[in-house]
Amino acid sequence: MDFIHDRHSNILFSLYGSKVNRIKIHNKTLTVSVDKMYQLVDGEEKAFLGEICFNNCDLDLGSVLIFNKTLDEGRFYGKSICLHDFINEYVDSEFEIITEGYFANTTTYTGWLWSDEKPPVSTIIYIWNSGDMVYRVKK
What we know:
By secondary structure, this protein is mainly beta.
C-alpha cells in the first residue's frame, strides 16, 4: 500500500530506530528500504516493513557526511561524499535512523552507520527530490 507524503501536513510514518537495509536508484527514483516504519493507528503504534521512494531525485544535490565516531564524544572529523558514491561504497553497511527532517524538497536522516564490524559512526544523509515522497508499506 502506498502513502504519498504531503509536504504541508504531518508526517505519516516515523522512522526513528529504523534500519536501512538497502538504498538504490533507478530512473531518478531513490528507494530506501527499511526494516520498520512506525505509524500511530487508533492510538497504538504499529510497525510495518517497507520502503520510502523519492521520485525525481537529483543525486547531484544529495550528499552524505560520515564522521569518525559518534557525535558528542569529543573532537571528531569526517568526510563528505556524494549520495551516488555512498550508495555504491557502503552497500554492505547498515544505517540506523535516529532523527529525520523534512524541509521543502530536502529530506535529512541523521543516525549511526555500521561498517566492517567496527563501532558505529555518526552519519547525516541529505536527499533532494522534486517529485512525490512515497511510503510503500509491504504486507
